[in-house]
Design brief:
two-stranded parallel sheet; 77 residues; single chain; three-stranded antiparallel β-sheet; alpha+beta; globular; 17% helix
Length: 77
Amino acid sequence: GPTGKVFAFEPNPAAREVLLRHVKWNRLESIVEVVPLAVGATPGHVDLFAAGADGMTRIGEANPLLSEQARQVTVEI
């Protein structure tokens, strides 16, 4: 609703840039906060394997379908 707030957690830097761009294009900066963290049971760090903004990002190991394009990024939980 008009007084609500959205917290969008996006640890993948490339996907986060796309998300931020869409939030701005849609003029939602006042209600959407993009958080650059992964979500997990305990705080710490985790290895994220991402191929750009592709939605097939995985934690722990590269998706076999993207293994050659994926790069490892350490992200905070």
